[in-house]
Structures are given as structure tokens and as C-alpha cells.
Amino acid sequence: MLWLRRIIIGLFILTGIGGVVSGYMWWKSRQVPAWWRVRAYTPEQQSAYANSARDKILAIRNLAEASRAHEISQAYNASQGKPTPATLASGPQAFTFAEDEVNAFALHFLTKERTTVEKIVQNPGVYLLEGHIVLAGHVKEYNRVLSLHFRPQIDKDGRLDLQLAKSYLNEMPIPTWTLNEKINKLRASLLAGIPQWQAKAKFDKGLANVDAVQAAGAELLLNTLKGVPSEPILFVSVIDGKEWLPVRLTAIEVKGPPSEQEKEKGTGEMTFTVRPLTPEERKTALERIKAPYEGAKPLAKDEVVVTR
Q1: Nearest to 105 by CA among 173, 58, 143
Q2: Are the beta carbons of 168 and 33 closer than 8 angstroms?
Q3: Residue 58 to residue 100: CA distance in whole angstroms
Q4: Which residue, 17, 58, 181, 248, could crosslink 12 as a Cys pair with Cβ 3.0–4.6 Å?
């Protein structure tokens, strides 16, 4: 831990604040956050929380699927010269996920993704604090909790701003530049992959293929790293992750535990308000997904893989 102490002390000496503050910051780096806890669900608890989250995701999927089925019915009737059904009422609907539902779902259904994350941190988890989604885990090398605090909001233009508001090692704030090495590796990986995903991305009868989802996800991460907003499009799986239904996120709210005493209970929650996309919105969304991303190297003609 000598490197950490030297960095802290060096920073504050350079800024003229001196040894008292540097000592305080070293102490802060040793204080575990009050909200941090290692979750230990029983099999019954994990299953109950995970299934509850899955049911809500299925409800979002059903909302989008009902709208898509109605569009297909309208198109068919029109092609047959038959009267088309009245427009389906499919306004925004809100879905609330508790902190334990989010984490149990990840444990139960996202084992592959979790294995990848656990190569970097131990006991990774999502923590819902007031106005913030916190991704955190214990870094064995430093024996400290690394946490990234995101402040999500829908901006005045209706775009999703997933801002990285602050980062900590335990209770010590750390500047973003200290994460540059890992951030640059992630950025390079995404920029290398996004042109191929964009080239193969498509929507077919309202369903997005996996390349469209990967391209949209990569753009969201890249924009978050740049501090700029993204299209507020979420995708829910239809068939084993091969086809996805897009929905538009119109609002997001993150509530933390109601009191200091309840922070340990994991009572934070987040609410997504979503609605199905219209055919015109899907067309626009695909155009934006396929638009070249700044900094990504365009594919040569012989590099493009055509999706049939």
C-alpha cells in the first residue's frame, strides 16, 4: 500500500495543503463505505429475488411485444384490403427494481458476465444510493473497495445521460485519471469492435439482432466514458439473446435507503419508465446505431460480414 500513500501525500504536498490533509485522506482510504456489504443470499432468497426481477423484465417485453404484434396485424390487414384495428394504447409504463432483485438476477442469470467482472474485483455488486447507481467490488490487490458512482438522468433533449459522477477507494475520492489505464483499454476494445457490430446490425419486423444490441451498448459505454448522452434505447431479450425488442426509456429515478439505519438492508430501488418504439423511431434508432462512431476505424469492404 506504499504506492497509495505516496500518491496521496504527493498530491497534497504539490497543492500546498500539507501533511494534515494527506494524513486525513490516507485515513479515509482505510474506511470501508457504510453502504458496502457482501451479499450472502440463501438459495431460496436468490431464486425469489431473481425471479421477481425476471418477471418485471418479462412484463417490459410483453409491453413491447403487444405493440409489435399490433403493428404486424395492421400491416397484414392493410395488405389484404381489410379494416385495420384501432391504434393500440401503449403509453409509458413504470417498472421498479429493488437493489436485491438487481443483484440476485445478476448472480442467477448473468454468470458468464459475472465471471468476467470477478477477474477484476471480488464480490462485485450494484448499490442504489440516492440519485446514483453504484458499481462496486473489493480489489484484493489494494485491499479496498473500488466504487464507481453513476448519476443517470434523461436530459432536456430526451437522451440518456449516464454520467460517472465520482469514484472512490473505500471512502477516499479518487480522480478519474487514476483509472485511465483500464479506461483506455476498455475504450480501445470497444472502438475495435463497434464497426463490425454496426455493419451487421439490423432490425427485422421490429426485432433487433444481437449485433444491433452490442453496437448500441458499446456506444452507451463509450459516450459514458466521454461524458456525453446517448440514445435512451433499452433492449429486452426475446429468444435466447438472439433477438431483442427495443423500448424507449422516458424517465429513470434512483432512490436510496430511506434512512441511515436502513442502508445495510439494501432497500434502494430504481424505477424505469419505458414505452414501445414506433416504426419511425425504430428506423431512426437503427440509423443512429449504424452511424460511424468517432474514433473507430471504418471497416474495409472485404472486412464486412453480411448478416443474412
Answers
A1: 58
A2: yes
A3: 18
A4: 17
